[in-house]
Amino acid sequence: MEPIPETIAALDELGAQLDDSTLVPGLVATADSARKVAPGLVGVSVASRRLDVTFTLVATDDEIAALDAVQYVSSGPCVDAIDLGHGIATSPAGLLSESRWRDFARASAAAGVHSTLTLPVVAADGEVVATVNLYGRTADSFEGRHQQLADAFGAWAPGAVTNADLSFSTRRAAEEAPGLLREAAIVDAATGIIAAQRRIPVDQARAQLEEAARRAGIPVTRLARVVVGLHDE
């Protein structure tokens, strides 16, 4: 499986921040391992709660085109799982019988996505830090494979959310990931500059940056660019 271009850019941006060049090959290898467990797997998205970005991999160009056709359909229960902290079990029959899901369930079936499995990634303290969303070509792509797939992604199988968000709408979030990471890096850099210049803790510097932006009525990223630009001169 291969990451979409936006995910490559996002992981490159994140890798530069972490000084880690293994992020792209690591995610690809993990997705390939998952596909060996579930050969019907056509797409994977990993949504990070901490970074507020989504990284997406898909199987082939043809499948990308099919999934693109429904990427703007309203998102389903799996998007809520990261905030709710627990699984939401939804069957295909339930999706079709419930009016709010009927259109996107039919559209997803037309696009070749017939099953999903969402696995929350849970930290040691019980907090859901990410979700892994798997998209299958057949209705039974993930049947009996929850634990193996959870092991592959370091996720928690009992928290699985099945057959939800068939729209693959999380791909749109993945397309926004590079910009979000770049903005976060700029704000972090500006925070560090303020902390060093004023000899104050980083959290206090961040609060001052955000408060100054709020008072000026501008986005904090705009102010951060000014601070970094002044420092570079």
Automatic annotation (TrEMBL):
Keywords: Transcription, Transcription regulation
Pfam families recorded: ANTAR (PF03861)
Residue intervals of the ANTAR domain: 181-228
InterPro entries recorded: ANTAR (IPR005561), GAF-like_dom_sf (IPR029016), WH-like_DNA-bd_sf (IPR036388)
Name of this chain's protein: ANTAR domain-containing protein
Organism of origin: Nocardioides pini
